[in-house]
């Protein structure tokens, strides 16, 4: 862990001052990601403990003395027989959350549990909760049982939580997608649940989980701090509506690493209030690519800073790396690095759009804008499915500042030729070979 921090710090310290002396990354802010205790690995405990020294606890689970306690959802009445198991999961959660020390919640392998909307809330007495999902969790199919329409599984106000285990979470989105106004414009735009939401969780690690077919977004981190999201596989059809892979909102110090995300909307979306966001080793496509924004909708104030996206591969996505803001917004998106990125047949590989409008009716021209500044595109290569591979459409009243490109080479997929750049209201610095270039 410290190794990572040192590498990251070295990166910030050596690279940034040479390019942007005004870059205000705050590397004195100690550990950008985590307090250590969430990370130590426990290799024992795989849903069954057989050693004779263990004693049976009041739920019929075997738990080793002075070792982590395990709460198996089956012991709380989960049947995995097609009926709703959410009450059993809630009881297991309550028991775990009210126990001290390190606690495990176990969802056994080779079973499929059906859940209605559930909320796992803290604060908890435990020092660490490990939610081990070995089996499969599937969403309840009746939309009218979703009283809060925008959520399915919620973890709220839980500190020191790990969700892991190699299992699968399936939102049964095929029931919701045809009801989307994006699919059927005659229907009202009511939205659909996010499959898994973490709200106000600090020191959180989500790893080795498959998320599939979310009703709308797959995984959201909202107002969390110190988050790691690692080794995730997120998949839904390329034509499923609004199925963002990982959505980051109001979250500070988050690392998203070594994950594959193939969905119908943004691979990763980073919106207002997010700070110190690092995404590395991400493969996207199909989908809409990696987005910062949209920001500033409805004249709102938005603030996103210190984002690093590196070692990403985007395949057949509609955008590569995108910053999108609405006209009329306020605030800023600043200190953003897109580095070591491969694009394959991407429609808009590099794009800043300050005239974003995701409505049927057009959006009126407005003076104010979310300021976009200090953005570096470095070592970006590959192909664009359209002639314009670089598109900076910045605000007339608040132009983009400090936009730098270094070693960028994007060619047109069809012609295998140089592609074009379209640039307005942008001041561009270039280093090394950059193609295409703004005229
Ligand atoms: C490239 O993407 C376009 C759509 O954006 C698609 O029609 C085309 O088949 C793709 N080409 C290849 C070689 O994948």
UniProtKB/TrEMBL annotation:
Domain of life per record = Eukaryota
Compartments annotated for it: namely: Secreted, Cell wall
Instruction: State a single Pfam family of this protein.
Output: Glyco_hydro_28
The active site consists of 288
**Signal sequence, start to end:** 1-21
Q: Which UniProt keywords apply?
A: Cell wall, Cell wall biogenesis/degradation, Glycosidase, Hydrolase, Secreted, Signal
**Family indicated by similarity:** Belongs to the glycosyl hydrolase 28 family.
PANTHER family according to UniProt: PTHR31375
Q: What is this protein called?
A: Polygalacturonase QRT2
